[in-house]
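Show me a record, fold above all:
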Amino acid sequence: MTVLAVAGIAVVLSLQMPGAAPETTDKAPSSTPLTSHSPAAPTAVAQAPATSTPSEPPEVSADEPSALDFRQLATTAARTIYTWDTRRATYSQTYGRIRAWWHVLPDSSNPLTVFAEQFEATGTNAAAFASLTGAHGYRTAKAINSTCDAQLVQLVQYPAPWDGLHVCTVTLAVTEHATSGTNSYTAPISVVVNCPPATTAPADHCEMVAFYASPDRIVY
């Protein structure tokens, strides 16, 4: 157990993916579905019966916030990552929107191969997205809890490798909507934010450099 804990937090805090080479393109990930981290994870067809057409979901800005508040950025990013709408955007557009938030570090220690894996770990992949398009599917997410830095036991035991690097784990209330009904569940996601005074961060705002949705990557 000690070996697994050390290995897990080392990957999160150092933003390393052993054996993974930096992605050279922004091509969306394959359509092969990944196993979801939640028993009530996204499925191709919503499970509960419905008697009306799904209502309009709240708008989520496609633009990354420019702020020095790492908690705000982490919470907004978490909600944006889990929110999509097949009626308004294709899978490639949805993938590209979140891809634009992921800033690769100068040493490429957070390659786009990791982004692709973690994006699909949210239950969003091309196959599921295509299946839900016909059902006018969309997914909403609301942050119900957020813990950052010293509030996270793993981060206390294994501190971030440089000043300005922050980790927040956000718990989301997620709801999938379709013409056949809705499916609700909670999902944790860890967001890594890089801020001044880090030399790898912009001088006047924070940037998201990683997020983790896979169960073995979540920081608690």
